[in-house]
Amino acid sequence: MIGRIDNSLSALPALGAAGVSNGQPSGRIGASVEPNAGQSDQKGNTTGDPTLTESEEQEVQRLNRRDQEVRAHERAHMAAGAGVVQGGASFTFTRGPDGKMYAVGGEVKIDTSTENDPDRTIRKMQQVKRAALAPAEPSGTDRSVAARAGQIEAQARQEKVKQENAEQKEDQNSLQDAGSLPVATARRPYQNEMTGQALNIMA
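^ SprA-related family protein, sequence as received from the core. Prediction below:
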C-alpha cells in the first residue's frame, strides 16, 4: 500500500491511506493482502489438528508459499530503500488449517517528502523508485509509487533548470556591469602598478 506523496513543488493526489511518521510525509509500499485474509499483530506458533485433509494440506502449502513471497517482497523493498524506508516491515496474517499464522500481506513505510534542494530531491525520488520496483514482481501499487516519484523527480529537474538559468543570467548581468565601466577607470590601477614597476627598475 502507498500513503500520500507530498511535495513542495506540486501537491499530488493521495493514493490509498495516508501515513505520517514524526510529522514527515510518508507512504506505504508492499505486497497486497490476499482476499478474505485474517489479521493478527503477531505470528503465532499454535498447531491445530495434526490430521489434515488433502485440501487442507494444499491450503497449508499455498499459505506457506504466500508467506515466503510476502516476506521476500518486503525484504526487497527494505534492501533497496535504505535512507527512505522508515522502520521495518509490518505484515497481515491469516491462520491456516494447521493452526499456524501465515503472512498474506505486508507493507513498508517510505519517506516521500521532498528536500529543500532540487538535486537532493532528485536523488531521493530515484531511491524511492528503486525501493518501489525492487521486488521481482512489483505490485500495481508499487508501480504507482514509482510513477509518482518520477513525476516529483521531473518537477525537481525543472526547478533545477530554472535555478541554473537564473544564476547564469545573474552572472551575465554582473559581467555586463563590469564591462560598462569607463576604460580609463578600469585601467588606472593596472597602469599605476606598471608605472611603479618601471620607476623601480630605472632607479
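The mean pLDDT is 76.
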